[in-house]
């Protein structure tokens, strides 16, 4: 009798074959079949960032099959990937554009969380871990930029590492650690490659798992109401309307992923990533500019003393990461958090203005 | 009678003629350029006759005086006299002489060990005062032509003899004309700086302005009847742009062609060697040519490229645009014996520096000129077309390194073909233009392939986007069905 019951519950085919042996059903059910607030408005930004990371893993792995991380061969290998390898240009261009979009969507995700106050109780740790993910992603951008070993890559890294060298107290040691010597050289390329393809993916993978675990455990935040705290009276409100995470939310998320994929294909096809002349430490280009997400810092350094220009962005990032510990108010609606929203608007306008002027020649 | 237009004649000839005039007039400078006998020589202009040089006078000994580099009696007093003299003292201290221990008495004589004016500046103690301009060259040469004295500084010691071989020196020597440039006019007096100092007037980049300080001054040049537009022409020339704007010290200044201490315009038959100092390969090609075999009456570098106003050489140098010039037999042939002659006036206007200025349309050589012009022009067009294609492909984000390499090779062949024009040999030139066209064709084909690949990418993109859209439609339909489920 018991055997009959088990046979009716276990699905057939390959899924049934695996399930019969591993009993993963309850685990998968626990992962997928969770209710989420119908009022939640994620705009799928976190999921899109996750999707773009997946794209980076796949395209990055393919690129690594052909890439040679030495100054003598790096440029030629990237040239070969772009010119000779079948669809190499596509893989490299998608990797390039997905990296940029990943930073963009991560920034939008952070903004969404901030505006909806989803970093507040009980999701402080999720936000802090997310801060770690943001820093790692920027680290990906910084280390990956050098790998083509062309003039732009080389000199942007020279300037970037010099900025890091301006950090008070630890600057000189940090500069030496990043470059692996006094100059940007073979040692720098080797360690940037190692950090880009091994250290950062492992770190990001670990923190990402933690981030998703926290999200799963806590569920999505309701942007209309603060989460009730234990021991405090729960205000009377109608029961929260819920919807299933799977398949409703997942379906919408996948449609969003397809839209981003389409954007990626268009960007990679119409604006394939190029290659400047090979890095030459003896020829300094007239204008050296970092990627767009570093332009604000780049411009700030032109306006203020180096120490301030280095310390201010680091301090800002630290403040953002520990924001849930500083802002512990119970309000979640933006109109009831005027100071926080005003600070954010000021910060965004400041970043936009600095980026705009940083982009000018 | 021909019109006399000395101000419009090329500077090269005019300045060269000055040497002849200087010696012929031997004393009083010509006040009226229109009446001097030398004007006829200028108008005839070819070739500049050799002129026997007056040898340099014996080298004077350096001024003997008491004291040494540490004797500062002169400066101690003069620096306190007034601001002007204090400024002179400062200039001297900062000068190469001040740094190397060459003091006031070395040029002015006197006794620098004394603080007493009656002793230090006494004629009895050898005080000379301000040296005459005529004596200055010998004064400088007393030390600078002394190999033993100059040994520690590793500088040349031939300036004295060179100076007296120059237009300036010869005029000073033979005509006693002290308005010509002497050492201090270019190097300063108290503020002498080494020519390697970028702030020195004699620094290569500053030389054009230095020479122009006299030669662009119409009043100063009026007695000599030579043009004053050399600097204006030079500034617009390839040489001037390279030296003055791009600050490329490899580019020639006035001194590179005329000499510095031995300043003199190169004679017509010297021009090829002068230009060949830098353009060595081109000189070798020219010496293979029919032009070179004509020697004195053959066209030289200046005939096609000009002198101070050398412009970017292009295919337009072959033939006149919009009609051929009027030919007179006398353009190229002597009216008396029909022998060839090179009339410099004919090439004064840059628009007339063309092959068909000499080779008239009915001549056999004209057809060869046309063939050369066609071959080089065709090669240039092929190269330009390839560059255009490469630019198009690059603008679409395509990597065009291989096409760039082929275009670079085509450019090398084109440069060789253009240089080979100096040989005047059609077969030599055609071989190189054919190579240019072949390489340019290769580059164009590679760029065209990139353009085709870019087209393919865009078409493939449309297909992929269509597939994505199809998937999205299916998912949207699933979503609708899901939401429709009660």
Write the layout of secondary structure elements.
The complex is a heterodimer of chains A (361) and B (486).
Chain A: H1 2-9, H2 13-22, H3 25-32, E1 35-37, H4 45-66, H5 74-83, H6 88-115, H7 124-146, H8 151-164, H9 171-179, H10 186-218, E2 242-244, H11 245-270, H12 295-303, H13 306-321, H14 323-326, H15 338-359
Antiparallel strand pairs in A: 1-2
Helix pairs in contact in A: 4-6, 5-6, 6-7, 6-11, 7-8, 7-10, 12-13, 12-15
Chain B: H1 11-25, H2 38-44, H3 73-81, H4 83-94, H5 96-100, H6 105-108, H7 117-120, H8 133-144, H9 147-150, H10 159-165, H11 167-175, H12 183-187, H13 207-215, H14 218-221, H15 230-236, H16 238-245, H17 254-258, H18 271-276, H19 280-286, H20 290-293, H21 301-305, H22 329-332, H23 364-395, H24 401-420, H25 426-484
Helix pairs in contact in B: 1-11, 3-4, 10-11, 15-16, 23-24, 23-25, 24-25
Order of helices and strands of chain B: HHHHHHHHHHHHHHHHHHHHHHHHH
| Structural shape of chain B | flat
Structural class of chain B: mainly alpha
Structural class of chain A: mainly alpha
Strand content of chain A: under 5%
């Amino acid at each position: 009798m018991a055997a009959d019951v088990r046979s009716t519950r276990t699905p057939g085919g390959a899924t049934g074959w695996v399930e019969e042996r591993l009993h993963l059903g309850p685990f998968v059910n626990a992962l997928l079949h969770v209710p989420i607030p119908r009022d939640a408005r994620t705009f799928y930004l976190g999921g899109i960032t996750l999707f773009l990371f997946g794209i980076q893993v796949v395209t990055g792995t393919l690129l690594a099959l052909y890439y040679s991380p030495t100054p003598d061969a790096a440029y030629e290998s990237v040239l070969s990937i772009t010119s000779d390898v079948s669809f190499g240009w596509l893989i490299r261009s998608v990797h390039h554009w997905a990296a940029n979009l990943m930073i963009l969507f991560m920034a939008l995700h952070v903004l969404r969380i901030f505006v909806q106050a989803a970093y507040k109780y009980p999701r402080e740790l999720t936000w802090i871990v997310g801060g770690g993910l943001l820093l790692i992603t920027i680290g990906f951008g910084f280390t990956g930029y050098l790998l083509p070993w062309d003039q732009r890559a080389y000199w942007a890294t020279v300037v970037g590492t010099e900025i890091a060298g301006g950090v008070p107290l630890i600057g000189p040691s940090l500069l030496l650690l990043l470059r692996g010597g006094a100059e940007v050289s073979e040692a720098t390329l080797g360690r940037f490659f190692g950090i880009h393809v091994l250290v950062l993916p492992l770190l990001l993978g670990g923190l990402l798992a933690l981030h998703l675990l926290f999200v799963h455990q806590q569920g999505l935040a309701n942007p209309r109401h603060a989460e009730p705290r234990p021991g405090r009276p729960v205000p009377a409100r109608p029961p929260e309307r819920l919807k299933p995470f799977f398949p409703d939310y997942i379906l919408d998320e996948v449609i969003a992923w397809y839209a981003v994929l389409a954007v990626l294909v268009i960007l990679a096809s119409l604006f394939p990533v190029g290659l400047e002349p090979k890095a030459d430490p003896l020829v300094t280009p007239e204008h050296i500019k970092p990627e767009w997400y570093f332009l604000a810092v780049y411009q700030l350094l032109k306006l203020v003393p180096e120490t301030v220009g280095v310390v201010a962005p680091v301090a800002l990032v630290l403040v953002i990461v520990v924001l849930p510990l500083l802002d512990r108010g119970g309000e979640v609606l933006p109109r009831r958090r005027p100071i926080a929203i005003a600070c954010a608007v000021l910060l965004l306008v400041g970043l936009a203005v600095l980026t705009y002027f940083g982009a000018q020649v | 009678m021909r019109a006399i237009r000395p101000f419009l004649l090329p500077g090269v000839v005019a300045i060269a003629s000055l040497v002849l005039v200087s010696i012929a007039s031997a004393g009083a400078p010509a006040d009226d350029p229109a009446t001097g006998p030398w004007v006829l020589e200028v108008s005839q202009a070819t070739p500049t006759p050799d002129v026997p040089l007056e040898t340099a006078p014996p080298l004077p000994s350096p001024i003997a005086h008491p004291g040494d580099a540490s004797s500062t009696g002169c400066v101690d007093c003069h620096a306190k006299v007034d601001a002007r003299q204090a400024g002179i003292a400062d200039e001297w201290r900062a000068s190469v002489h001040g740094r190397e221990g060459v003091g006031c008495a070395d040029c002015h004589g006197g006794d620098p060990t004394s603080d007493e004016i009656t002793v230090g500046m006494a004629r009895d103690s050898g005080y000379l005062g301000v040296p005459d301009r005529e004596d200055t060259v010998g004064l400088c040469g007393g030390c600078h032509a002394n190999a033993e004295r100059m040994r520690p500084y590793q500088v040349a010691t031939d300036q004295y003899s060179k100076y007296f071989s120059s237009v300036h020196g010869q005029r000073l020597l033979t005509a006693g004309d002290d308005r010509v440039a002497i050492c201090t006019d270019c190097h300063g007096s108290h503020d002498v700086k080494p020519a390697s100092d970028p702030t020195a007037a004699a620094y290569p980049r500053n030389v054009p302005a230095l020479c122009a300080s006299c030669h662009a001054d119409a009043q100063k040049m009026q007695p000599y009847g030579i043009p004053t537009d050399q600097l204006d022409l030079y500034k617009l020339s390839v040489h001037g742009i390279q030296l003055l704007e791009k600050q490329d010290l490899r580019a020639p200044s006035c001194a590179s062609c005329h000499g510095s201490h031995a300043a003199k315009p190169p004679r017509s038959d010297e021009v090829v060697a002068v230009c060949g100092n830098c353009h060595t390969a081109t000189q070798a090609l020219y010496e293979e040519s029919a032009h070179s075999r004509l020697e004195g009456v053959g066209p030289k570098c200046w005939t096609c490229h000009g002198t101070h106003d050398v412009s970017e050489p292009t295919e337009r140098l072959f033939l006149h645009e919009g009609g051929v010039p009027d030919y007179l037999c006398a353009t190229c042939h002597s009216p008396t014996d029909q022998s060839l002659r090179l009339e410099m006036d004919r090439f004064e206007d840059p628009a007339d520096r063309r092959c068909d200025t000499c080779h008239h349309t009915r001549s056999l050589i004209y057809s060869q000129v046309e063939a050369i012009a066609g071959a080089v022009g065709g090669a240039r067009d092929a190269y330009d077309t390839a560059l255009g294609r490469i630019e198009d492909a690059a603008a679409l984000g395509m990597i065009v390194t291989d096409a760039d390499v082929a275009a670079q090779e085509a450019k090398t062949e084109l440069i060789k073909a253009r240089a080979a024009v100096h040989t005047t040999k059609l077969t030599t030139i055609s071989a190189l233009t054919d190579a240019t066209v072949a390489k340019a064709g290769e580059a164009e084909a590679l760029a065209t392939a990139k353009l085709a690949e870019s087209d393919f990418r865009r078409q493939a993109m449309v297909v992929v986007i269509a597939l994505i859209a199809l998937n999205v439609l299916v998912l949207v339909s699933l979503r609708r069905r899901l939401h429709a489920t009660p």
